[in-house]
Amino acid sequence: MKMIAALILYSASLAAHAQAPMGGPPHPPGLPSAEALATVPNLTAAQQIEVRKILLERRDAHEAAAAKSRAERDGLAKKDRAEHERIDDQSTDRLRKLLGDDGFRQFAEWQLAHRSGPGGPERGPGMPDGPRHGPHQPGGKVATMPGATSDDRDD
């Protein structure tokens, strides 16, 4: 009967923490205090100590597994960064050999000016702020083609 009560307590603690937050593994449940374990029906003091010890070992094992995963993930990220840097360095060397120093410098400037992504070329110095896509100009005005009249618009 006492073991059943301990198993119920253990199962209840697992069920309470079974759902993992989005984006990560389930976190181990907190360790119940000695006072909380004292409220489990038909659990002797010796059993309370053993239950607490088992739950402590479980928490420590979860923490060790998480630490191991973090270390492996960090190691893989470091390896990936090194590989990407190697690829970039190799490409740079090949481009410099093909174009020469002056040609490579001009290519690098051109590439930087035409880089896409957040704040891409349409957001360069001297460009107006406003919507990134669509026909609207800053201030909510609809853009027109140069040379077009207001009669040519389809608004």
Entry keywords:
single chain, 155 residues, mainly alpha, 57% helix
Structure characterization notes:
This protein is mainly α. The chain has a domain at 2-15 and 28-74. Helix content is 57%, strand content 0%. It has helices at 2-16, 34-37, 45-113. The protein starts with a helix and ends in a 42-residue tail after the last helix.
List the helices and strands and how they pair.
Elements: H1 2-16, H2 34-37, H3 45-113
Short structural summary:
The protein has a domain of 61 residues.
Could you give a short account of the major beta sheet?
Answer: none
The backbone outline, from C-alpha atoms, is: rod-shaped
> How many E strands?
0
How does the helix and strand content classify structurally?
mainly alpha
**What do the pLDDT scores average to?**
75
> Please, how many helices?
3
Strand-residue proportion: under 5%
Whole-angstrom Rg? 32 Å
Share of helix, binned: 55-70%
Distance between the termini: 78 Å
Q: H/E element string?
A: HHH
Which blocks of ≥5 consecutive residues have pLDDT under 50? 18-25
